Amino acid sequence: MDSKANKCRICGNDIDNREYTVRKNMFHIYDEFLYFKCANCGCLQIKEYPTNISKYYPSDYYSFSRKKKTLHQIIVDFLMKCSLSYRINRLNLIGLFAIRYNDYYKYQLPCFDKGKCDYSSKILDIGCGAGTLLMQLRGFGFSDLTGIDPSFLQISFILMV
Question: pTM of the entire structure?
Answer without folding.
Answer: 0.52
